[in-house]
Amino acid sequence: MLNKNTLRGWLSDLKNRGNNRSGEMSFFGHLDVLRKHLIRSALAIAMTTSWAFIYYDFVFDKIILGPKKADFLTYRMMCWISEHFHLSAAYCLKEINFKIINTEMAGQFNLQLNSSVIIGIILGFPYLLFEIWLFIKPALNLRERKAASGFVFYASLLFLLGIFFGYYIIAPYSIRFLVGFHVSEVIENQITIDSYLSSIVTLTLGTGIIFEMPIIVLILSGLGLLTPKLMRSSRRYAVVIMLIIAAVVTPTPDIQTMLIVFLPLMILYEISIMVALRVERNAMQPQKVRQI
Questions:
Q1: 253 and 139 together in one domain
Q2: Residue 127 domain-assigned?
Q3: 26 has a pLDDT exceeding 70
Q4: Structure pTM?
Q5: pLDDT at residue 130, as a whole number
Q6: Per-residue pLDDT averaged across 72-93, rounded?
Q7: In terms of residue numbers, what domain contains 63?
Q8: Per the domain annotation, does 120 fall within a domain?
């Protein structure tokens, strides 16, 4: 026969199993919510990708081939600066002599497909951030929500600024140097379309990601992994690292081009210090209230 202690043990075991199952349902519930956010983000990126694929004549001629043309905005600005400030005529680019070729059977189709996806990701990136924010927002308290207000706007703005900086500054300078570099006049520059596209994408997207430095600092500071004191004390090392990044990103040998890349990185680093300082001050506010 069953006694009271045995029944109580069984009831306690059933209760614990129920709690475990409810915890498992909660975990899978979060996964289900995340899945919905990712599906909506994928649909948004699919729509922007479809737009780029449909209007690919404009995308290819005006955007992808833009840095290859001598009438590109950056080259025209360089000519204007050289004329008004009486600089060397070498700054004004009149023509770019290189051919883009295709060496694969499906090369041009893959070009249209891949570049449409890349354009779609860039255009859909702000909406992707918005869905990420909707997913993490319920887990934040009121103070954390106020501290992270404007996350989508500022992260999207920094990303797009990085994209424009990489496309209009770094990519043209790099293309101008690389296609104009000759080991011998016997060698003719014929660049494959894959090489050309990968160079444009790497320089552009890479700069867009680098410009997210303040947002990364915001997250690390919120987790307590980074402090403004640490960033100030490490400024000299950060300068060396940013100079190396500028030298790698811009394969041109002149110091002016490297400084054009380095200065925005240095400005972003100083902004990141201010962001970390603000996070630290917001974290200390509850402690001050308790002391009072």
A1: no
A2: yes
A3: no
A4: 0.79
A5: 92
A6: 77
A7: 27-211
A8: yes
